[in-house]
Design goal:
single chain, mainly alpha, Helicase, Ruva Protein, domain 3, 2 domains, two-stranded antiparallel sheet, 6 helices
């Protein structure tokens, strides 16, 4: 198993797919990393040589990834909450941020339904 940026990437997958296991590296960035390192995308991780892994590590090191990226995202969210803008308030309340309706859907953000008792007439 190759270890890149503190993450064990799976050895039985193609290089492009395996690199996406690193937080902050998606499909397009994985292709870019392999192109810059001059490695074919279709080669599986178990077939990479030590020189190729070193080249990939060097390319991946140029990006903000994993713990540093996670903390950056958390600081951005905290800043929104501190200044009290619309998005910050929605974060604080655990509701959707981007204008979605909340009457029927948004169960992912709101969590399990909390039933409210009906008032008798």
């Amino acid at each position: 198993m190759a270890r890149i940026a503190g993450i064990d990437i799976p050895k039985n997958k193609r290089g492009v797919i395996a690199l996406t296991y690193i937080f902050g590296i998606g499909n397009s960035r994985a292709k870019e990393v392999l192109a810059n390192a001059k490695i074919d995308e279709s080669i599986k991780v178990q077939d990479w040589t030590d020189d190729q892994i070193a080249a990939i590590r060097e390319q991946v090191g140029t990006f903000t990834i994993e713990g540093e990226l996670r903390s950056e995202v958390q600081l951005s969210i905290k800043r929104l909450m501190d200044i009290g803008c619309q998005r910050g308030i929605r974060h604080r309340l655990g509701l959707p941020l981007r204008g979605q309706r909340t009457k029927n859907n948004s169960r992912t953000r709101k969590g399990k339904r909390k039933t409210v008792a009906n008032k008798k007439k």
